[in-house]
Automatic annotation (TrEMBL):
Domain of life of the source: Bacteria
Keyword Nucleotidyltransferase: no
SUPFAM superfamilies reported in the protein's UniProt record: HAD-like
InterPro entries on file: HAD-like_hydrolase_sf, HAD-like_sf, HAD-SF_hydro_IA, HAD_2, HAD_sf, PGP-like_dom2
Species whose genome carries this gene: Sphingomonas humi
Name the UniProt record assigns to this protein: HAD-IA family hydrolase
Residues annotated as signal peptide: none
Gene Ontology terms, MF aspect: hydrolase activity
Keywords on record: Hydrolase
C-alpha cells in the first residue's frame, strides 16, 4: 500500500528562521511597527502570512495585516535579489529523503510559503522533483486547517492512516490530526516538545535520522 510522508518546509526541511526574521523586520518597519524579539516571532513560522501578522500585531486591523503580508512578500523578494536569503537544509535531511524513497515512501510538502517561495527553496537544493505533491498557502487556508494535507494525500493516492506529517510546529501537528494523519514532531525546528505534544504529536524526533523508524512504526500499527 502507498505510504506518504508530508513535510513542512521552514523549520523542518530548511533552517530559514534568520531570513524570515529579517523580512519580518523590514515589513514591520515599513508600517511603523516594532518587531517582536526573534524567539517570539519564530512562534508564528508555519502559519500563512496574514495569520502570522495577526498573531504578531494582534491590536491592528485585518486590512493592515493584509498589507503587512504583502510588504513581507516584497521584502523577501528584495532579500533574494540581494542574495541575502539563507535557507540551508538541516543536517540529515538529504539522507532521510533518500531512506524514505528507498523504502517506497512518496514525498510531499505542505507549507505556509508561497508557490514561488517554495519553488525557489527546493530548486536551490535540487529537491523540487523529488516531491510528488507541493501544497502552499497560495491555494489553501492556513495550518492547522487540514486542507494542505488532504490535497497532498489525494495527489499521492494515499490514505491518512498510512501517512505521516513531519513538522516542527504545533500548527503542523494540528493539521496532521485534523486530516487523520500520524504526526511526527521535529525537535530540530522552532517549537518545543511541550508545544508539539500539546498539539497532538504522536512521536517526537530529535533528529532527521529518527524519522524513518518512527514513521514506519506508526503506519505499521495501522496495518
Amino acid at each position: 500500500m502507498i505510504r506518504c510522508a508530508i513535510f513542512d518546509c521552514d523549520g523542518t526541511l530548511v533552517d530559514s528562521g534568520g531570513t524570515i526574521h529579517r523580512a519580518l523586520g523590514l515589513a514591520f518597519a515599513e508600517h511603523g511597527l516594532e518587531l517582536p524579539p526573534r524567539q517570539q516571532a519564530q512562534r508564528v513560522i508555519g502559519l500563512s502570512l496574514v495569520e502570522a501578522m495577526a498573531e504578531l500585531a494582534p491590536t491592528r486591523d485585518a486590512d493592515l495585516h493584509q498589507r503587512m503580508a504583502d510588504t513581507y512578500k516584497d521584502a523577501f523578494v528584495t532579500l533574494r535579489g540581494q542574495r541575502q536569503v539563507e535557507e540551508p537544509l538541516f543536517d540529515g535531511i538529504l539522507p532521510l529523503l533518500d531512506a524514505l524513497e528507498e523504502r517506497g515512501w512518496l514525498l510531499a510538502v505542505a507549507t505556509g510559503k508561497s508557490d514561488r517561495g517554495l519553488r525557489h527553496c527546493l530548486t536551490s537544493h535540487g529537491l523540487h522533483a523529488r516531491f510528488l505533491s507541493l501544497q502552499t498557502a497560495d491555494r489553501h487556508p492556513s495550518k492547522p486547517h487540514p486542507s494542505m494535507a488532504l490535497q497532498a494525500l489525494a495527489e499521492c493516492g494515499a490514505t491518512a492512516e498510512r501517512s505521516v506529517v513531519i513538522g516542527d510546529t504545533g500548527w503542523d501537528m494540528g493539521m496532521a490530526k485534523s486530516a487523520g494523519c500520524h504526526a511526527i514532531g521535529a525537535l530540530w525546528g522552532y517549537h518545543d516538545a511541550d508545544e508539539l505534544r500539546a498539539a497532538g504529536a504522536d512521536t517526537l524526533a530529535r533528529a532527521p535520522a529518527d524519522v524513518l523508524d518512527q514513521a514506519e512504526q506508526l503506519v505499521s500499527a495501522e496495518a
